[in-house]
């Protein structure tokens, strides 16, 4: 669905995305997570063709983003502020969608509008934040894209509106048979709807993969502080959290964790993500916790 090779985007001297090499398979709902300023919006805007790379290459659905009108028709995009036209009615938005998109599905659009309680005569400027998000999602999905790209569309919504938006997103993806990329800093939303994860921080990809594989490849060890230098070879230390006597060590062991004398616990998605974000914010922390020769970095 998306393939990037050494993808880099700078704004002046400031790097927004650095040396990003990434392959995302089709048929997934991808969660793109990271702190503010991590490069999430930049990656999605590159994927939509709204901006161009400083260097490196990016293919979306096998082609350069926005290379042709036909390629644009295969991608639906909901920007961060879920933009709609304030003076347009709901019906105006559907008419505009029908005029601009060759594969527009009017029946789908009308059915979804009715399901979320929008009236065709309502002006978009008088809708609530949740209603505007539902309208923007409907317009993006009714063009029947192969790929839906959503840039933190539910960040400003209250919990009830966010729940409705996420439920409708899952339904759209299932109905369309599409792939989707959802950028969010709300890990609950990602865990609820996504089966593939990309963690961005500091303008770089920290980890990526199918969620079940990532969780199976990460472990939490409870290690006495005076035995941290005895971690098995071949594991990658992601994060270390010290207590009085023991340390909680988040490790990655893709080929399976070697036998250890210490208690081992499964890792939750939130803990794994926060471990990578913490390491990206202070890259010396994990290295300082364990002698460099004992771990694979």
TrEMBL record:
Signal peptide: none annotated. GO terms for molecular function: ATP binding. It comes from Plantactinospora endophytica. The keyword Protein biosynthesis does not apply. Residues 2-227 form the ABC transporter domain. Belongs to the ABC transporter superfamily. This is ABC transporter ATP-binding protein. CDD domains: ABC_DR_subfamily_A. It comes from the Bacteria. SUPFAM superfamilies: P-loop containing nucleoside triphosphate hydrolases (SSF52540). Keywords: ATP-binding, Nucleotide-binding, Transport. Pfam families: ABC_tran.
